[in-house]
Specification:
single chain, alpha/beta, 692 residues
Length: 692
């Protein structure tokens, strides 16, 4: 019974800490989807180290030496509790280090949870190894299924039972207490193992496979020197599908725990199904389902953003689940005899790590799009065909169909991608996402657009004499335009220039409102955005204002300036730091607002862009206005053309004269709906509270 309890608690803690610690560090690295990708790379790397340790530990001939070694590491890991207790200054210093966000995320995670996570990672394989020594006639593979069930429970409980009701600090303490309980259970198991006098190496456990064969199933493993390559290939592709699908889901919605957890749950569920019973993986059925979703996936790569968030989540989840069932079903068919158990798990862990590396490092540096997503589909068809051929030692209809589909999907992808990128002037991919500059023709007018992910972040006319006119979300008579123009007029009357801060640069469109003597300071996290705005748009160079650009997260940069006793003294502070269609949550918390007010001049205005396809941010802004004891003004501007954008801006201010201004009153939108206000803090925020 102790084996079951130890494995269950260990797997539960292993997976619950993932969204917990990722959410803690998310704000310090810009709040983008790439932070979760970096976290997954760390989790896969330490899972690999844990499995390698378990494999090497199992090779020590004396079981008591194995127990002693593991017990010492377990004891030492308790000294590092509670997790996530690094000083804020340490986290901030790492986040502020230039050009190394991925490395710094990995370093931060290693110092925060490294050893406890390492111990938990090794629990499954080493406990199963000891179980096989103590129970010769029982297969340990169902313990693997049990660990995946525990992992699934951990992931599902986080967004629904943990995140909504506990602060981040409380979550860290709760997890640390649970880890202590796990250590006690594990210690009891170690004692039990040392007292067992009948432990001896177990060479093979064939009972389950023999019974399956007798029932007529073809669920057998013909082990050859090529089998580990299939283990590696399927485990690698499974993780590539997991990470790339998560990236697709969170490209236009804030990368919050629920949208991390859902793909990971489906990934684990496929493991549970495939390893629990061979009857649940029917090869031809899941191949047919994957074939259908593969066609959908190729088109979703190009048009996915046209769907609402619910449809996107359902479609991407279906693609991921069918792909993982094929990958993990084949892995279950290829599972070896018990004496190769730790090597099998080590290979799977290495495949998972390799998949994360391919997405986080390789794909980021060689692709300017998320091409790993459709390429994984082509690769899975090829690998599946090889697995079928290897089993049957001949090319049959199934393997031939799979190869044909790989070719078809590859050709279709290439043709569609050529059409998609033909309007590209510039494109770049880095840690923060995918950026492109496209020249398009809209209603007979040539425009240049800055696209972050799939969302436009700035537009400039290419027509003669029109390049200076602000467009899209920043056009004339929008909330931000009114704030800049009216305060500029007021300051001119007092013979003063305007001092404006902007969190988020985009194409630099708002620089067009600058007048001679004005000071415009832009804070931009993504260096690629700065390059695009300077090289492919002329708003910054044509601006009459003195323009300064600070590269780095806006909130982190403002905090740094405040510590240096340098405040912006801004008349207006514009918050417009979108990534895709998502806005980093750490920029809209009570603590962030307190920081902003310290940088504002008396009677200053905070202008927040809240246009969003998926999120209703107005209740949140109302809550933050109440917390700050400021007045809120809401501006909703309808699109002027069929292909234009509705835009929504909010002011937070105590500048009564500006609010009473006739121009302000004429464009201000009354708030007619009575909704419950929402308040986010650094320690507590919940995306579902603002989801449309």
């Amino acid at each position: 019974m102790l084996f079951f309890i130890a494995i269950f608690i260990g797997a539960f803690l292993l997976f619950q800490v993932q969204p917990l610690i990722a959410k803690v560090i998310l704000p310090y690295f810009g709040g983008g989807a790439a932070v979760w990708t970096a976290c997954l790379l760390f989790f896969q790397a330490f899972l690999l180290l844990g499995y390698l340790y378990a494999h090497l530990l199992s090779k020590i001939g004396d079981v008591k030496k194995q127990v002693f070694t593991h017990g010492m590491l377990l004891l030492f890991s308790l000294c590092l509790l509670p997790i996530g207790s690094l000083p804020v200054e340490t986290i901030t210093n790492l986040a502020e280090t230039d050009n190394l966000p991925l490395t710094n995320v990995l370093l931060l995670l290693a110092t925060s949870i490294g050893l406890p996570y390492f111990i938990l990672s090794s629990t499954g394989p080493i406990a199963q190894h000891w179980f096989s020594l103590a129970n010769h006639n029982q297969s340990p593979y169902k313990l693997y299924s049990l660990s995946n069930v525990a992992s699934l429970v951990a992931l599902l409980s986080f967004p629904f039972l943990i995140e909504p009701f506990f602060t981040s600090a409380q979550q860290s303490w709760y997890w640390s207490v649970m880890y202590f309980v796990y250590a006690v259970v594990m210690a009891a198991l170690l004692v039990k193992i040392t007292q067992n006098k009948h432990l001896q190496p177990c060479h093979e456990a064939r009972d389950e496979q023999e019974s399956i064969t007798k029932q007529g199933h073809d669920f057998v493993c013909l082990y050859t020197r090529w089998t580990p390559l299939l283990w590696l290939g399927f485990s690698t592709l499974g993780v590539i599908f997991l990470v790339s699908t998560t990236n697709a889901m969170t490209q236009n919605v804030p990368p919050v725990p629920f949208l991390w957890v859902l793909p990971l749950c489906l990934y684990l569920l496929s493991f549970i199904i495939c390893f629990h019973s061979p009857k649940w993986y029917v090869r031809w059925y899941w191949f047919a389902l994957f074939m259908l979703t593969a066609f959908i996936a190729i088109f979703m790569f190009f048009i996915g953003s046209q769907f609402d968030i619910t449809s996107q989540v359902v479609i991407y989840s279906s693609i991921l689940f069918s792909a993982c069932m094929l990958c993990h079903g084949e892995l279950a068919r290829l599972k070896p005899n018990v004496e190769q158990l730790t090597f099998y798990y080590l290979t799977l862990a290495f495949g998972g790590f390799l998949g994360s590396v391919l997405v986080a490092f390789v794909a980021q540096n060689i692709f300017t799009q998320f091409l790993e997503f459709p390429l994984a589909i082509v690769s899975l068809f090829i690998l599946f065909s090889w697995a079928v051929y290897r089993e049957n030692t001949r090319i049959d209809k199934l393997s031939l169909t799979s190869i044909a589909l790989a070719i078809f999907c590859g050709v279709t992808l290439w043709q569609l991608n050529q059409l998609y990128i033909k309007t590209d002037v510039y494109s770049e991919r880095n840690f923060y996402g995918i950026l492109s500059v496209k020249d398009v023709n809209v209603d007979g007018q040539k425009e240049r657009r800055l696209i972050d992910g799939t969302t436009s972040h700035g537009t400039q006319s290419l027509m003669p004499g029109a390049a200076h006119i602000p467009m899209s979300y920043y056009r004339e008579n929008t909330g931000v335009a009114i704030a800049l123009e009216q305060l500029s007029l007021i300051n001119k009357q007092n013979q003063q220039s305007l001092n404006v801060g902007f969190i988020g640069l985009g194409a630099g469109t708002l620089a067009a409102y600058g007048n001679k003597g004005d000071r415009y300071r832009f804070y931009e996290l993504n260096p690629a955005v700065v390059h695009a705005a300077r090289e492919y748009f002329s708003y910054l160079t044509d601006s009459k204002a003195d323009v300064e650009i600070v590269i780095g997260d806006g909130r982190v940069s403002l905090s740094k300036e405040l510590k240096a006793q340098s405040t912006g003294n801004f008349d207006v502070l514009v918050i417009d730091a979108f990534s895709g269609d998502s806005i980093p949550q750490h920029l809209l918390t009570v603590e962030s607002m307190q920081l902003y007010w310290q940088h504002l001049a008396p009677n200053g205005v905070i202008a927040v862009h809240i246009s969003n396809t998926h999120l209703n941010l107005l209740p949140l802004m109302q809550g933050l206005a109440q917390q700050s004891d400021k007045q809120l003004a809401y501006f909703k501007t309808k699109a002027q053309t069929e292909n234009g954008h509705d835009t929504q801006w909010v002011w937070l201010t105590d500048n009564q004269s500006l609010l009473d201004n006739p121009v302000t009153k004429s464009y201000r939108t009354p708030i007619t709906t009575n909704t419950n206000t929402v308040v986010w803090s650094d320690d507590f925020s919940h995306l579902l509270s603002v989801l449309k």
